Amino acid sequence: MTETVVLKLGGSVITDKSGECAIDHARLHEVAEELAVRRDSALVLVHGAGSCGHPEARRYRVNDGLTGENVPGVYETHAAVSSLNAAVVDALRDAGVEAIGIHPLDLALAQDGRLVSFETRHIAEMTEHGIVPVLHGDVVMDRLRGSCIVSGDQLVTHLAAALASRRVGLATDVAGVLRNGSVVPRIDRSIVKTLDVGGSGNTDVTGGMQGKIAELLALADAGIDSHIFHVSKIGRFLDGTGHGGTIIGRGMP
Amino acid sequence: MTETVVLKLGGSVITDKSGECAIDHARLHEVAEELAVRRDSALVLVHGAGSCGHPEARRYRVNDGLTGENVPGVYETHAAVSSLNAAVVDALRDAGVEAIGIHPLDLALAQDGRLVSFETRHIAEMTEHGIVPVLHGDVVMDRLRGSCIVSGDQLVTHLAAALASRRVGLATDVAGVLRNGSVVPRIDRSIVKTLDVGGSGNTDVTGGMQGKIAELLALADAGIDSHIFHVSKIGRFLDGTGHGGTIIGRGMP
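Structure tokens for the assembled complex are given below, as produced in the milestone run.
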């Protein structure tokens, strides 16, 4: 079996976060072309919600649970991010990638904001037939709160662990994790406390860069390194050459 | 907890099976109005593919498994039936029903045409918050064949058993199971062999009426009766009054 790559496209990369569901179609087509010419690995794609879904999630407070009044927020949030997912899948298929969208709301069960059930064997089966499953941050049902938001980052860590991926990449709109304007080349638990990482300036209910690092450190604990780099370096990440970004891994024992 | 009703709308009921994805929007709105005025039970809706998906499934032979060449058939079949699902959800929401579409491809794993993994706890959680999950017959990944078709009828039996439903209804374009032009009021395993039930005359890769009865007899074995009736009788089925159709149940011990 070929190696499985889990690649996340940040919401800021594929939407304009200052607008409301302003999809960057030109960027999507650039990314799709990069992926279309590199088809030697099994690939699972995850994308953030960006400005599609975050505004609805915040408006209806679906991450705080269901009260009765905010139940329509499940549909509204899901519909917004699903429309972004359709645009990602369309761009990939236009470039010749056999992409299929998978919506976390349809399969996930969470408890207090964390996934407790999320089947991945059908996703592995897809990759074995050359299909690229495309998942996304989504509202999902939560047996404690009613509903919650599962971020693309939480999905990346769950998928990478379940699919035993050794290549996990997160394409963002910055060059990596920054400290004083410079990329931090490697982060592990021993140095993370010395970092002062800023939050996202835009609407993001999933924790921004700090949330991302926390997810990826948990993945590193399980022995899986991950890579954060600028979206323009996707080709270099897939080729295994230097991407100039940050590697999040396990500390020295 | 309120009683969970599992209701299936046959593909022939909501599409014109002689066309290609010819959705009967007028019928959908009639059904939606019936459901909107009866909201006292938890409801899970399933619909067939009708003329949306069956032609693609047949063209690509996705029920026979994946060969490499027919892989695009997974997307094409799924996209066709998903477009029907969107129309069903839209009609329900227009009528004030808090409907959300759930796509089986996103969560199911099958083996040789039968579901072996299909989470339902999030579906139960939805119904507890007044959401009506709307599922559909779909192509799904199959760990033996690569892909297969899971019919709406197989979904009905799986959901009814998993959700411990005591009210299972299948709305069709005929009055029930017919013998010599008359409705057979009750079917169990002891009399099914004496019935000569015709197949569907249109494109249907899921076995038509014979496949439906086989699914529902398996459900009856598990102690759950099901009802087959004309779509115009949905209100009477939900109200628990006579629908003039066929009940499929367990034989006398």
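Chain B is about 35% helix and 25% strand. Confidence is low (pLDDT under 50) at residues 199-203 of chain B. Further analysis is deferred to the final report.
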